[in-house]
Write a structure and sequence with these properties.
Blueprint: H1 8-17, E1 21-23, H2 46-60, E2 65-69, H3 78-87, E3 91-96, H4 115-135, E4 139-142, E5 147-148, H5 156-172, E6 179-183, E7 193-194, H6 199-209, E8 213-218, H7 228-237, E9 241-246, H8 263-275, E10 286-289, H9 298-318, H10 321-329, H11 333-344, H12 349-358, H13 365-372, H14 374-381
Parallel strand pairs: 1-2, 2-3, 3-4, 4-6, 6-8, 8-9, 9-10
Antiparallel strand pairs: 5-7
Helix pairs in contact: 2-9, 2-13, 4-5, 7-8, 8-9, 9-13, 10-11
Length: 392
């Protein structure tokens, strides 16, 4: 199987250049609010998380960055952590703030009614900027659990005013090369009103902040049935899609492996991304996995997700754009749909295997990692200490 004549070389280059950032927290113990199942060989500190993430890049060639979560990934010397990452063939990506696990933030962080609590939350983000400077990161990623469980609990309008003020303080502290990436989620843990529940709210704040503020879209942060590819299109049209977090969900924010629930949705999303050239590094969109492996092995689960994204991207690149436009302009409903369906139905795995071998990688990353013996070695080596998890 080959890509269509004409765009073949460009599509091959696109597949080669496309990269996905990995979340450090995916390599620690994770699960649901009911149970976290520990696994042997789980990292005990951020350095071991980096080492595990580097295995994903080693076998896929497509995951050269690792995103940190603060304070989960606090170390004494972030410069040393960045150098350690480089020694392992990866680098530090976005720095994610955490203002949802401190008792002071029970009623909110950047939106809290108490100015002292808001100031504390702002200081945390300024600390994240220091970590960005020490590691070479350029993206500060903010997701807030802030919201209300009950009508009348607080003023909806006042919380938005406080949020705007707090974000403004953080934005003012950015260096010229920095970006502020603002994530949204329609519910959980706030159930009546989340302070940043949708892409419109995030976009409104980003537009007010300035050109270096952009929206983060997470596929799991939408109500069932939401047309996510429409949101992708709108944010790209506005030039404000800063980051895209891949995962999969059946019900809400399930954080399952990419494409597990609806591979056709993943294809549709990537078709929109490809149609606007947003898959190219020059677009500035930071693609990342954001998923927690509750029962599946950590490293292998990340490899599988990277492969699933690559397969969906390859299929999206197979769409004949000229034929699609012709059918659309002619009002050929079935013909236009068939262009997409033909690309989606194509088995691109042989193509991707060939491309990996051209780059000196194993054709089957899952099998190559399983045969490497890495997991057995770290299980033996990582005895003692405390395994990393959601709060470490």
């Amino acid at each position: 199987m080959t890509l269509p004549t004409g765009p073949t070389a460009e599509a091959h280059a696109d597949l080669h250049n496309f990269s996905i950032e990995l979340p450090s927290w995916a390599f620690g113990n994770s699960g649901t609010r009911f149970k976290v199942f520990a696994q042997p060989g789980v990292p005990r500190d951020p350095f071991e998380k980096i080492a595990d993430a580097a295995q994903v890049h080693r076998y896929t060639g497509a995951a050269p960055r690792v995103s940190l979560h603060i304070p989960w990934d606090l170390v004494d010397d972030f410069g040393a952590l960045a150098r350690y990452a480089e020694e392992h063939g990866v680098r530090i990506g976005a720095i994610n703030s955490n203002v949802f696990q401190d008792d002071d933030y029970k009623l909110g962080s950047l939106t809290h009614a108490d100015r002292a609590v808001r100031a504390k939350a702002v200081r945390h983000h300024l600390r994240c900027l220091d970590i960005m400077r020490a590691t070479g990161s350029t993206d500060l990623k903010i997701w807030l659990a802030d919201g209300l469980n009950y009508p009348g609990q607080d003023s909806l309008r006042a919380r938005q005013e406080r949020l705007a003020e707090s974000l403004g303080e953080i934005y003012a502290a950015l260096d010229p090369e920095h970006r502020l990436l603002l994530e949204y989620k329609f519910f959980e843990p706030a159930f009546y009103a989340t302070d940043i529940p949708d892409w419109g709210t995030s976009l409104t704040h980003c537009l007010a902040l300035g050109d270096r503020a952009a929206v983060v879209l997470d596929t799991g942060h939408h109500a069932p049935g939401t047309n996510i590819e429409f949101i992708v299109m709108m944010l790209l049209r506005a030039g404000r899609l800063g980051a895209f977090d891949f995962n999969s969900r059946f019900y809400a924010d399930d954080d399952l492996m990419v494409g597990a629930a609806d591979p056709f949705q993943l294809f549709r999303i990537l078709h929109e991304i490809v149609s606007q050239d947003a898959h190219k590094p020059s677009s500035g969109v930071n693609f990342m996995l954001d998923q927690c492996h509750n029962i599946e092995p950590k490293i292998a689960g990340q490899i599988r997700s990277v492969l699933n994204v690559q397969e969906a991207l390859a299929k999206a690149l197979l769409v004949d754009a000229d034929e699609l436009r012709t059918a659309q302009r002619a009002g050929d409903v079935l013909g236009a749909n068939a262009v997409l369906m033909d690309a989606f139905a194509t088995d691109v795995r042989p193509l991707l295997a060939d491309l990996r071998e051209e780059r000196g990688l194993a054709a089957d990353p899952m099998a190559a990692f399983a045969d490497s013996g890495y997991l057995e070695r770290v299980v033996d080596a990582r005895v003692g200490g405390s395994q990393a998890g959601w709060d470490a």
